[in-house]
Amino acid sequence: MARRIDHYLRDLVDDSKLEFYGVVRDFVESEIAPRLLGWERDHVLLPDSAIAKLAEIGLFGLSIDESYGGQGGGMTDLVLMGLALGYHSQSLAITPGAAISLGAKPLQLCGTDEQKRAHLPDLAAGRRMFVFGLSEPGRGSDAANPEVSATREGSEWVIRGEKCWSTNAHWASHVIVHALTDPSGPNGKRSTCFIVPMDAPGVFYQEMSGKRVWQQSSTGSIMFDGVRVAEDSVLGEVNGGFKVMVTTLNGGRLFIAGLALASLAFALDKVRRYAEERIQFDDKPIGRFQRVQDVIIDMDVALERNLTWLVHCCRRYDEGNLERERAAKVKLDSSRVASELLLLAMEACGGVACLDEFGLIRHHDDLFVTRVGEGSNFALKDLVVRPLRQSD
Ligand SMILES: Cc1cc2nc3c(=O)[nH]c(=O)nc-3n(C[C@H](O)[C@H](O)[C@H](O)COP(=O)(O)OP(=O)(O)OC[C@H]3O[C@@H](n4cnc5c(N)ncnc54)[C@H](O)[C@@H]3O)c2cc1C
Questions:
Q1: Coil, helix or strand for 196?
Q2: In the beta sheet, which residues pair with residue 323?
Q3: Which of 134, 371, 372 to mutate to test the pocket of ligand 1 (most atoms within 8 A of CB)?
């Protein structure tokens, strides 16, 4: 049974993009998908060998300019990668996904030429990885005023405090730290971003324990105990750190919307296949029951609608005119709809859906992250409602 998502993508993207998507899809199908369940049962992160393979086929270089050794391309390509990898596992997809959309992207958007030359070639090759240090134990949705601080001492900045929920921390070479630098400045202009090497004296990383979602993805806490960095570590402008973070999140939210749709696409194919195989009552498949059909139809409609919407947003992003609320809207709607439908998809399959080898439970759990990650859906509504409340 062909993937339903491929049917829609054929209408939405050009042949070269479709070919790229097909290469990544086939690579995952043969090289990674057969090993995922084993890693999950062993509770291990994505092995280094798998990350090396993703690097080998150039995925860490996506959307990085060719002059820096990247593959070029834009947000549509990045989202296509997320759809191809995320169909089997969001953990797998978020590893290069966060490395690019949250790691390399702020550097591309706000870095100096010197910073780009120093890091982008290694990031594109997968030899380095940046993590996005916005969230803290005491600052989640309320991220504009970090508790992590950076103070000037002579020609250096000294960073103190703790970041958490940092995706890819285990493999990271550097962390982009969002730190308070001017507590009395105007709101949104009190913080600065710094590029800090993970092996700098005073940086301590610990993998967060007990996480039951995105199980093969690394999620770390990173402590900064008087970490000294030079002036050229500042990313963007001094006291312009929140702008760096917010600009970055626009693209990150499109990627997260793609992950939600990748899970929905997997579940749709699983349910429609199972509904024809599973026989109950009178030797007939459960796919004949209208209530099971309703679930399948709703999933199919949601996939086509939100995928079309997402590809449209990616195009606008690449043209440089996607408003923040539109990126937020497609993320919040795709994650909400996909996670609500996933539960119904499991119900339509019955008890077998509880088994890890059936594959739905992984997507069900991972979809929760798409609801809270890169801005919780509840909090994002503050952004979405703004243009609705402006008087003309
Ligand atoms: C697996 C995973 C990976 C992550 N990776 C990263 C990463 O790489 N880098 C990074 O910096 N962060 C990362 N995050 C953090 C993520 O961005 C935060 O979880 C998110 O911003 C929400 O913050 P919080 O969890 O502290 O929730 P809180 O801010 O404590 O909010 C809790 C809840 O309160 C409600 N709420 C909060 N504010 C509002 C509001 N304004 N209006 C209405 N309701 C509201 C919502 O229901 C919200 O879900 C990751 C999180 C997870 C789970």
A1: strand
A2: none
A3: 372
For residue 65, give the DSSP letter: -
Cα-to-centroid distance, 237 and ligand 1 (Å): 25
Find, among 283, 302, 306, 305, the residue nearest to 294 by Cα. 302
Q: What was the pLDDT predicted at 392?
A: 62
The closest alpha carbon to 25, from 84, 86, 102, 110, belongs to 84
Strand ranges (DSSP E) for the chain?
Answer: 130-133, 149-153, 156-167, 174-180, 191-197, 203-207, 219-230, 234-235
- Name the residue with tokens 């967060």: 208
Q: Which residue has the tokens 């993703």?
A: 54
pTM of the model: 0.98
Choose the residue to mutate in 100, 135, 171, 256 for probing ligand 1, maximizing ligand atoms within 8 Å of C-beta.
135
φ and ψ at residue 190, rounded to 5 degrees: -110, -5
**Cβ pair 198, 175 in contact under 8 A:** yes
pLDDT at 221: 98
pLDDT, position 340:
98
Domains of the chain in start order, with CATH, are 4-129 (1.10.540.10), 131-242 (2.40.110.10), 244-389 (1.20.140.10)
**Whether 156 is catalytic:** no
**pLDDT at position 390, please?**
80
Atom index in ligand 1 nearest the CA of residue 98 equals: 8
Q: Which residues fall within 8 angstroms of residue 170, CB to CB, at 6 or more apart?
A: 45, 205, 207, 218, 220
Phi, psi of 12 (to 5 degrees): -100, -25
Give residue 100 CA to ligand 1 midpoint distance, Å: 20
Contact between 271 and 4 (Cβ < 8 Å): no
Residue ranges in the chain modelled with pLDDT below 50: none
- With CA atoms as reference, report the closest residue to 317 among 76, 72, 16: 76
SS3 state at 150: strand
- State the pLDDT at residue 1: 83
DSSP class of residue 71 equals -
Cβ–ligand 1 contact at 167 (below 6 Å): yes
